[in-house]
Amino acid sequence: MEIDFDKMQGLVPAVIQDAANGELLMLGFMNQQALEMTLSTGFVTFYSRTRQKLWTKGETSGNRLQVAAASTDCDRDSLLFRVKVLGDGKVCHNGTRSCFTESLPLKAAAPAKAPLKQKRPKSEKAAR
Fold it and tell me: Angle at Cα 54 formed by Cα 10 and Cα 61, nearest 5°?
Protein backbone atom coordinates (compact mmCIF):
# COMPACT_ATOMS: atom_id res chain seq x y z
CA MET A 1 0.00 0.00 0.00
CA GLU A 2 1.37 3.39 -0.97
CA ILE A 3 1.41 6.16 1.64
CA ASP A 4 1.27 9.73 0.29
CA PHE A 5 4.45 11.34 1.60
CA ASP A 6 4.28 14.16 -0.98
CA LYS A 7 1.62 16.35 0.68
CA MET A 8 3.89 17.32 3.58
CA GLN A 9 7.29 17.36 1.89
CA GLY A 10 8.13 13.73 2.63
CA LEU A 11 6.44 13.40 6.02
CA VAL A 12 3.15 12.06 7.36
CA PRO A 13 1.66 12.48 10.84
CA ALA A 14 1.69 9.31 12.95
CA VAL A 15 -0.89 9.12 15.73
CA ILE A 16 0.06 6.83 18.61
CA GLN A 17 -2.75 5.18 20.58
CA ASP A 18 -2.62 2.70 23.47
CA ALA A 19 -3.88 -0.64 22.13
CA ALA A 20 -5.18 -1.68 25.56
CA ASN A 21 -7.41 1.27 26.40
CA GLY A 22 -7.55 3.56 23.34
CA GLU A 23 -5.81 6.48 25.07
CA LEU A 24 -4.20 8.94 22.66
CA LEU A 25 -0.54 9.06 23.62
CA MET A 26 1.34 11.21 21.14
CA LEU A 27 1.71 12.50 17.62
CA GLY A 28 4.94 12.28 15.68
CA PHE A 29 6.03 12.42 12.07
CA MET A 30 7.41 9.72 9.83
CA ASN A 31 9.19 9.75 6.53
CA GLN A 32 9.22 6.65 4.36
CA GLN A 33 12.36 5.27 6.02
CA ALA A 34 10.84 5.68 9.52
CA LEU A 35 7.69 3.87 8.41
CA GLU A 36 9.68 1.03 6.88
CA MET A 37 11.78 0.71 10.03
CA THR A 38 8.66 0.73 12.24
CA LEU A 39 6.98 -1.98 10.17
CA SER A 40 10.10 -4.16 9.98
CA THR A 41 11.18 -3.91 13.65
CA GLY A 42 7.76 -3.70 15.29
CA PHE A 43 8.80 -0.63 17.31
CA VAL A 44 7.74 2.94 16.50
CA THR A 45 10.43 5.04 14.80
CA PHE A 46 9.86 8.70 13.97
CA TYR A 47 11.62 11.30 11.90
CA SER A 48 12.73 14.22 14.06
CA ARG A 49 12.01 17.48 12.28
CA THR A 50 14.26 19.31 14.75
CA ARG A 51 17.27 17.00 14.57
CA GLN A 52 16.63 15.94 10.96
CA LYS A 53 17.16 12.26 11.72
CA LEU A 54 15.35 9.04 12.63
CA TRP A 55 14.75 8.16 16.26
CA THR A 56 13.13 5.11 17.79
CA LYS A 57 10.82 6.08 20.64
CA GLY A 58 12.27 4.92 23.94
CA GLU A 59 15.82 4.36 22.73
CA THR A 60 17.15 6.34 25.70
CA SER A 61 14.24 6.28 28.19
CA GLY A 62 13.29 2.62 27.74
CA ASN A 63 9.66 3.61 27.16
CA ARG A 64 9.41 1.86 23.82
CA LEU A 65 6.25 1.59 21.73
CA GLN A 66 5.65 -1.92 20.40
CA VAL A 67 3.29 -1.92 17.43
CA ALA A 68 0.13 -3.99 17.88
CA ALA A 69 -1.68 -2.68 14.77
CA ALA A 70 -1.07 -0.12 12.05
CA SER A 71 -3.48 1.60 9.68
CA THR A 72 -3.77 4.62 7.41
CA ASP A 73 -6.60 7.03 6.77
CA CYS A 74 -8.74 7.14 3.63
CA ASP A 75 -6.38 9.64 1.94
CA ARG A 76 -3.33 7.56 2.85
CA ASP A 77 -1.58 10.64 4.23
CA SER A 78 -1.82 9.93 7.97
CA LEU A 79 -0.98 6.88 10.05
CA LEU A 80 -2.40 5.34 13.22
CA PHE A 81 -0.39 2.97 15.37
CA ARG A 82 -2.01 1.06 18.20
CA VAL A 83 0.82 0.18 20.57
CA LYS A 84 1.82 -1.62 23.73
CA VAL A 85 3.79 0.77 25.94
CA LEU A 86 6.94 -0.80 27.38
CA GLY A 87 8.94 0.59 30.29
CA ASP A 88 7.44 2.76 33.01
CA GLY A 89 4.67 4.00 30.69
CA LYS A 90 5.75 7.63 30.50
CA VAL A 91 5.50 8.26 26.79
CA CYS A 92 5.91 12.06 26.83
CA HIS A 93 9.33 13.63 27.26
CA ASN A 94 7.72 15.78 30.00
CA GLY A 95 7.31 12.67 32.14
CA THR A 96 3.59 12.05 31.57
CA ARG A 97 1.84 9.08 30.04
CA SER A 98 0.31 11.15 27.22
CA CYS A 99 1.65 14.22 25.45
CA PHE A 100 -1.90 15.59 25.35
CA THR A 101 -2.13 17.15 28.81
CA GLU A 102 -2.47 20.87 28.06
CA SER A 103 -6.10 22.02 28.00
CA LEU A 104 -7.17 24.83 25.73
CA PRO A 105 -9.88 27.29 26.77
CA LEU A 106 -13.12 26.90 24.87
CA LYS A 107 -15.64 29.65 24.37
CA ALA A 108 -19.01 28.76 25.83
CA ALA A 109 -21.25 27.41 23.12
CA ALA A 110 -24.50 29.22 22.51
CA PRO A 111 -27.42 27.17 23.79
CA ALA A 112 -29.19 25.24 21.08
CA LYS A 113 -32.60 26.57 20.18
CA ALA A 114 -35.49 24.24 20.62
CA PRO A 115 -37.12 23.31 17.31
CA LEU A 116 -40.19 25.33 16.46
CA LYS A 117 -43.43 23.52 17.06
CA GLN A 118 -45.27 23.02 13.86
CA LYS A 119 -48.97 23.67 13.89
CA ARG A 120 -50.99 20.71 12.77
CA PRO A 121 -53.56 21.24 10.05
CA LYS A 122 -57.15 21.52 11.31
CA SER A 123 -58.08 18.27 9.57
CA GLU A 124 -55.41 16.40 11.58
CA LYS A 125 -56.66 17.92 14.88
CA ALA A 126 -60.25 16.90 14.11
CA ALA A 127 -59.25 13.30 13.43
CA ARG A 128 -58.06 12.86 17.03
Answer: 140
Question: How crowded is the C-beta side of 40, counted as CA atoms within 13 Å?
Answer: 6
Q: What is the pTM of this model?
A: 0.81
Q: Give the contacts of 24 (CB within 8 A, at least 6 positions apart).
A: 15, 16, 17, 98, 100
Q: How far is CA 111 from CA 1, 29, 35, 57, 108, in A?
A: 45, 38, 45, 44, 9
Could you tell me the domains of the chain?
12-85 (3.10.20.810)
Per-residue pLDDT tens digits for 41-82: 999 999 999 999 999 999 988 999 999 999 999 999 999 999
Reduced DSSP (H G I as helix, E B as strand, rest coil) percent helix, strand, coil of the chain, to 5: 10, 30, 60
The DSSP code for 39 is H
